[in-house]
Predict the structure.
Amino acid sequence: MPNELNKLKEKILKKGNLPGHIAIIMDGNGRWARRRGLPRTAGHKAGVTAVKRIVRAAGDMGISVLTLFTFSQENWKRPKNEVSAIMKLLYETTKREINELDRNNVKLMTTGRTEELSPRRRQILQEAIERTKNNTGLILNLALNYGGRTEILDAVKKIAGDVKRGKLDPAQLTEESFSDYLYTNTLPDPDLLIRTSGEMRISNFLLWQTSYTELYVTDVLWPNFSVRDFYRAIQDYQSRERRFGRL
Ligand code: IPE
Ligand code: IPE
Ligand code: MG
């Protein structure tokens, strides 16, 4: 790691107050490719390289949870060849990187309706999750076939089922116990949400969980997102005053 980058890292660590859970909307792969006259799938491939460096940087810095918006429910509406290229990348990258992730004490998990992915693909993910389940370092959470409204609806359906079976009294439901019905029930809410490539929207990501998350939008396209850009986002977070409605 270049010395200057290392110094920046030390500075951030010294300041303390790190975001425990960072979520990223990794956007801009298509634009990155278009600017180079390449097919969109080349952008997704370049995006994987960015994923690798940011996962490493997050682990090195001692971040607890990194949630990456990898494939949204809405992304199925893209052309078939793009969808299958993304899925192939996901599956190949998981297979290729699992040894290193495990060696680095990363614990892999997914958030979203993964039961709707192809069985073969699901199995690769399931094996990687199983293999890393006792790791105690960075939790790498891939949001896959994820939609925020669907997650809330799925929670409501489970709650309705529990009420019907007499397991739950609706009057006793709180924000905390509602959160237990979400896909992310084992995770704290994100402290920082980064979106690359400049779009100022949430795109159906973690709707419930981001109610008090600090937002950081950068124009940098995801494949170009560097460790330095990641550090900048963290530094920006460190300068924020989180009030949660208080004074
Ligand atoms: C993000 O990049 C990756 C996924 C949504 C899977 P995009 O593919 O959305 O890139 P742009 O927004 O077209 O540039
Ligand atoms: C959000 O990006 C989904 C992922 C990064 C996986 P999109 O590119 O799909 O979002 P929109 O369409 O610009 O809102
Ligand atoms: Mg996009």
Q: What stands out?
A: The two ends are 41 Å apart (CA to CA). The chain has one domain: 20-238. The beta strands are 21-25, 65-72, 107-111, 139-146, 192-195, 214-217. The longest strand covers residues 65-72.
